[in-house]
Amino acid sequence: MSAPTSTITAVTPDGPEVAAAPAKRQRLRFVANPKAATGLIVLAFFSLIAIIGPWIAPFDPSQRSSDILQGPSGKHWFGTTHLGQDIFSQMLVGTRGVMFVGLLAGIVATALSVLIGVSSGFLGGAADEGLSALSNVFLVIPALPLIIIVASTIPGAGDLMVALVIGFTSWAWGARVLRAQTLSLRRRDYVEAARATGESTWRIITAEIMPNLTAIIASSFVGTVIFAIMSEITLAFIGISTISEWNWGTILFWAQSQQALAQGAWWWFVPAGLAIAILGTALSLINFGIDEFVSPRLRNAGHTKVKTNDGHSVRMRVGFTPVLGNKAVAPTPVVRKVDAA
C-alpha cells in the first residue's frame, strides 16, 4: 500500500532541517566550551600582537634614552631598563619570536609524529619495527639538553633554527601515542570494509584512520607548542640563543643579568612573566577543551542529575559515586516472648 501524497509532502521538507540542527550543534560544540573559547580568544590576541606588534611599538626596543630604570608611566607603560629602553616596545616586538618558534616547532613535530606514528601503526611488520626503533631512540634522548647543545654549536642561531631544532627533537612521544591508537583502529569493521573494496593504503589512512585521530593530533600539537615556547624562552633566558633578537626570554635574561629584582625594578620582569603564564594557561585551556570535546564523560561531568526515591536530585561528577538511598526508617521494636514459669 502506497503512502498518501500529502504525508510525503509534509514530512520531506522538514527532514533536512531536523538533521541539520544536530550537525550544526556538533560543529559548534568545541567553540561553545568555555575553556576552549577562552583559550582561543587569548591565543588569537597574542597572534594578533605577534603580527602587528613591531608596527605599533611606540619606540625602537633597542633604542637607549635618558629615562633609566623608571617605573610605569604614561610615556613608558611598562617602564624602562638600565639603558632607558622601553620595555613595552620590547614586549610587543618579542611576541613575534615566541609565537613563531612555538607554532613552527609545533607544526614540524606534529607532522613528523603523524607521518611516523600512523605509518608505523598501520603498516606493521618491518616498517613498524624500524619506525618504532627510531621513535624509541628519540624518546630516550633528553630533548632540552640536546636543544641546548645544538643551538649553542650553531653560530647565530635565530628563531628559525631554534624552531626547527625543537620540532625535530620533540615528535617521538606524539608518534608513540598515534601508533598505539592506530593499532586499535586498523582492525575496525569500517577499515576492513574499505580494504575489502580495494581502497589503497594511503586512501584508507587519510580517509578512514586520520579523521578518528584528529583530537589526539590537535592535543599533541598544543602540547608541543607549549613545550616549544618554554624551550625558546629557556634558551634565551640562559643566554644560549642569540640575544640580539627580542623575545620574552631575552627580556628576562637582561633583567636577571642586571639584578632587576635586587634593584626593585619589578616592572622589568613581571610583564614578561605574566605574558608567559597567560599564554601557557590559554594553550592548556584549549587542550582541556579538546579533551572534553572528544570525551563524553568529561563533557557531561557535573551536568547529569539523578533523582533519588525521596525526590531529591543528585548531580553526577567525575570521581564521585553518589549513593542513592531511601529515607531513614525507624527501627522496628523487637518483642521477646517470655515463657511462663
Automatic annotation (TrEMBL):
Keywords assigned by UniProt, alphabetized: Cell membrane, Membrane, Transmembrane, Transmembrane helix, Transport
Compartment annotation: Cell membrane
CDD domains: TM_PBP2
Every ABC transmembrane type-1 domain range: 99-287
Keyword Transmembrane: yes
Gene Ontology molecular function: any one: dipeptide transmembrane transporter activity
Bilayer topology term: Multi-pass membrane protein
Keyword Cell membrane listed: yes
GO CC annotation terms, alphabetical: plasma membrane
Transmembrane spans: 36-57, 98-118, 130-154, 160-178, 213-240, 266-290
Pfam short name (any one): BPD_transp_1
Family: Belongs to the binding-protein-dependent transport system permease family.
Protein known as: ABC transporter permease
